[in-house]
Amino acid sequence: MPAVPEKLTQAERLAAVEEAFRSLPERYLGADPEFDATFHVRLCDIGHSWEVRCTSTTARVRKGATNRVPDVTIASDSDTWLRLRAGEFSGVEAFERRLLSVRGNLDYAVAFEGMFRLPNGRPPLLQVHELHVGRHRVSTLTMGQGPDVLLLHGLGSTRASLFETAAALSHRYRVHAPDLPGFGASSKPALGAYNAGWFADIMLGAMDELDISSAHVVGNSMGGRVAIELGLVAPERVRSLVALCPAVAWIRRGLHPLVRLLRPEFGLLPHGFRRSTVATQFWSMFYDRDAVDPAVGELMVDEFRRIYHSAGARYAFLSSARNIYLEAPFGDRGFYPRLAELQPPALFVWGSHDRLVPHAFSRHVRKWLPSAEQLTIDACGHVPQVEHPEETHGLLLDFFARNERRRLVPAASAGVGGVEAA
């Protein structure tokens, strides 16, 4: 299908949109056996809406709304929808550019695009894979082409916190953004250890399932701690490592005895948080909340509350938080002595106004891992890839490129006389 013409009459635009919706059933790739979700798509500029119901084998399309309550509502304009249909950019990129908005189940919204072929039988620009790693199911978003990059989200978050990062990197890399087990759309085992070693082991299994021999690994907060663990236990699988405000081990732990008494099993009891409480905690992670789209913030708050409704998610959240706080900083198997053994090239990025993991932790990293690169982003809280996306993504691309070049130099030198460069 050629690029969407810039100028279409209202009637031509409506006809093109209707044809795109009519073709959905024949382009449907199918879903998991028990999948059944309803999508409501509103194209505001032409004043029409469509209902798309997807099951394991079929996609049914109906113009206009029905009495069925949608799992997802997607609002956009006809030009964006036609360009998505043509494969000019992905839905995640459209979301990043604020060309569409989403209400409802964000996992379904992301998976929607990957359920349909593009024109001429081309595969979708992104896909959501349901990987089976041992007894665990890991839901992973994959997009782009090139060397592999693995993105790992933080505590209480999902891969959604890395959507913009995935979109920015996907022009040069094949990017994988999983929901860590216990979070998002992945399984939530009641017997999960929910510590860095457990997460790292499952991520290595996910890499095997995706046929990834090695990858650049990026993690934010708890995901940064998991990225470090991957570099420690399987350095040959990590091309380079970027830790964004990583959840390193606490030095002063005044609440240590109390935290030990807080059992994760309490999460199995029905409870929840008021929306105002979740919103307050969410916005506290940023230094300048005006740098974050309010609509995106509202979506993230709703997503946390939706997921936390599950007993498994509550258990995972409390277990993970407890393990982060209780990790020993020193001793034979303490975090910092182990950090000194990290082999892959590493970049630590801190936020100048991060209240969860203050940038003062950089001095401990510098002491134990002097080879690591470190920098602090000014006027930044705990989630730099959201609050300062352009700066953060530029740092990632530069760091990856430099390490790709470093990997090529010894290989090229070894090919001439068999001697590697010093």
In words, what does this structure look like?
The chain has 2 domains: 17-121, Nonspecific Lipid-transfer Protein, Chain A (2-Layer Sandwich); 126-413, 3-Layer(aba) Sandwich (Rossmann fold), CATH 3.40.50. It has 16 helices and 13 strands. It has helices at 10-22, 24-27, 78-86, 91-96, 106-113, 163-169, 196-209, 222-233, 256-261, 275-284, 294-308, 311-326, 335-339, 362-368, 384-387, 389-414, and strands spanning 36-43, 48-55, 59-63, 72-76, 101-104, 126-133, 136-143, 148-152, 174-178, 215-220, 238-244, 346-351, 373-377. The protein has an 8-stranded mixed sheet, sandwiched between helices. Strands 3-2-1-4-5 form a 5-stranded mixed sheet. Helix 1 crosses helix 3, helix 7 packs across helix 8 and helix 10 packs across helix 11 (294-308). The longest helix has 26 residues, at 389-414.
Structure in a nutshell:
Helix content is 38%, strand content 19%.
